[in-house]
Amino acid sequence: MWKGFLMKHARRWLLLVAALWLLPQAALAQPKKPAGGNKPPPTAPAAGGDIEIDDPNAPAHEEQPAEPAPTPTEETGAGGGGICEIDPSACPKQGDIKKLADRQVAADVYAVQQIYALRRGRFEINPYWSQSLNDQFVGHPGPGLAVNYYLTNVLAVGVNGTYYQPFNSDADFNFENRRATRLAVPLNEYLGGYAVNFTYVPMYGKFSGFGNFIFHYDGYLVGGVGGLFTRPIAVIDPDNRKFDFEHRIAFNVGFGLRIFLNRWFSVIGEIRDYIYIEQLENTQVAATQAGQQDRNTWFGEKPLTNNVQAQIGISMFLPFSWEYRLPK
Amino acid sequence: MKQGFKLALAAAALATGVVAAPQTANAQEIQITGPLAGAPAVRKLRLYREGRAELAVGGGFTLLDEYQRTPFISGRLQYNIFDWLGVGVFGGFSPASLPTDLTEKIDSTAPRNSRTAVNLPGTGGPKFEEQTGKMGWMATPQVTFSPFRGKLALFQKLFVDTDLYVHGGVAFVGVKERGDCGGAGGQPACNTAAGFKTADRVAVAPSFGLGLTLYPSNFVSINFEYRAFPFSYNRGGFDSRGSGPDASFPDNKIDSEDRTFKFNQMMFVGVGFHLPTSPKISE
């Protein structure tokens, strides 16, 4: 009779075995339910493929995960309800979890899984304070503002401007040197400067502070062209000479470090070299009164000048938030 | 009547404010459960410093020099008690100083007359650069504190472990500057050739700064370091102080009064070698 039953339902048994065999082998983690709307949850990257954050032409992942898992509620029990309530032995104990956590796994982990602060498509507003690094005769500190727009995650175009005029500082050293040697060093002061820049971000990293917290940083290169308004300070013949600010074309190159305090706010330190042709005061004074008052006799050498500035500031990224295209 | 209405209105507003004021603020502590409960921020951390000695060699150069640029052949010997704390000595010597453009201009164009006789050697005398202050060597016992450990990605392809540290100590600097002249006790007159000779002394100064170490391998590291060691010395060899109000006018003597404060700074770039050659790894 039993044999007859099996024979009678042989076709159904075969279908059941085939269905069991075709069950997916790998376990699939259930994605989180989307926070709002019916947007599909993010998809996983292809196995072995690189995560390319900036590739706008990458095909969208069509595959949809299975039905999103229900968010744990008080009914279902957030702390392991469901099967755990029916059969507690089926749930891992705390000791088992620790053992599992300590086991060696050959995980396929990306070196940079998700960049902490994406820059692509965001504006960066960077107020800063600038300080001279290589002018021991006249300090050129001043406040400035930079605005950048990131075309990709590593490339930005932007402008910056610095206001120097009330902050130029003639060092005591100049006076003491003049008094001791009767030799005056031509000095110059700045009104302001501006530049159009490209920024490239080749370095990205993170630091663990005191082994307790982690912060992210990046290093960037910057370069551009703009102008500086400068003029000589009349030290050779101050009785007759009076100079106006004039525009000089200035190229700039530099590098910087940006430390993220959160995903839209960071602290920036930057070294920038503004390279331009300076106009110095003439160290010779004309012999006659008419000659001394002749403006054409006031100007001297035109050396190529490097104005190296350290810029320290903060930077804010707008918009404040974004959505990752690929999951963590 | 009107006054009473206003008072009542104010009292009602006050009462509404008190009633509507937020109750005690509540914050929820995030309870991490599961395998991450109590776990450290970083596992399997390579402890590049702890229990290891480091010998770093490289070059340094001073910044914002007025009369002489001073390149240093430098090194650092350090033992790291913990990954975040090390003790050691930074030192170096300068094989030669390089005169700045200002020094060369003073030598070639500054007038030699009675007004400059105390400060500049006469025509046919020694060159001006010989009287300028120079740093010959330095030795700095120091403590290094490394609170930040991390990694750096270059072009998202190359990954290097890094740490950021601060250091502080006491710098002993060998300074050569113009010797005393014009004073009592048989000192030479300052406007004679003997008055332009230099003398050596050791300046003691605080030393502090910060640096970045990159670890391309377990054994070798690359080091970028900034150091400040401010102290006073007579950089130009000039008589600039000693008389008048606040002793801020020349007194035709060269002595310690003529030393002026300088915030000396230098950059150091070096390669470090670590022993034992393999670092410990944290749990």
Work out the radius of gyration of chain A.
34 Å
H/E element order of chain A? HHHHEEEEEHEEEEHE
Q: Major sheet of chain A: size, sense and barrel closure?
A: 8 strands, antiparallel, barrel
Question: Could you give a short account of the major beta sheet of chain B?
Answer: 8 strands, antiparallel, barrel
Averaged pLDDT of chain A: 78
Distance between the termini of chain A: 58 Å
Let me know the number of strands of chain A: 10
The strands making up the biggest β-sheet of chain A line up spatially as 1-3-4-6-7-8-9-10
Shape of chain A: elongated
CATH architecture of the domain at 123-318 in chain A: Beta Barrel
Top CATH class of the domain at 123-318 in chain A: Mainly Beta
Fraction in helix of chain A: 10-25%
SSE string of chain B, helices as H and strands as E: HEEEEEEHEEEEEEEEEE
Number of helices of chain B: 2
Could you explain how this protein is built, in words?
The complex is a heterodimer of chains A (328) and B (283). Chain A has a domain at 123-318: Porin (Beta Barrel). Helices cover 14% and strands 36% of the residues of chain A. Chain A contains 6 helices and 10 strands; from the N terminus they run ααααβββββαββββαβ. Chain A has helices spanning 2-8, 10-21, 83-86, 94-102, 172-181, 289-293; strands spanning 123-132, 138-139, 142-150, 155-163, 169-170, 187-209, 213-233, 246-260, 265-277, 304-318. In chain A, a hairpin with a 3-residue loop joins strand 6 (187-209) and strand 7. The model of chain A is unreliable at 24-80 (pLDDT under 50). The termini of chain B are far apart. In chain B, 33% of the residues are buried. Chain B has helices at 2-20, 101-109, and strands at 46-47, 53-63, 68-69, 71-80, 85-93, 98-99, 134-154, 158-178, 198-215, 220-228, 231-233, 242-243, 249-250, 260-262, 265-275, 280-281. Chain B has 2 helices and 16 strands. Chain B has a single domain (45-281), classed as Porin (Beta Barrel). The chains are: A mainly beta (328), B mainly beta (283). The A-B interface holds A 97-98, 100-101, 111-112, 133-134, 136, 173, 176-177, 179-183, 185, 202-214, 217, 219 and B 34-35, 39-42, 45, 63-66, 84, 102, 105-106, 109-111, 113, 115-116, 119-120, 147-156, 159, 162, 164, 236, 238-240, 250, 260. Strand 6 of chain A pairs antiparallel with strand 7 (134-154) of chain B.
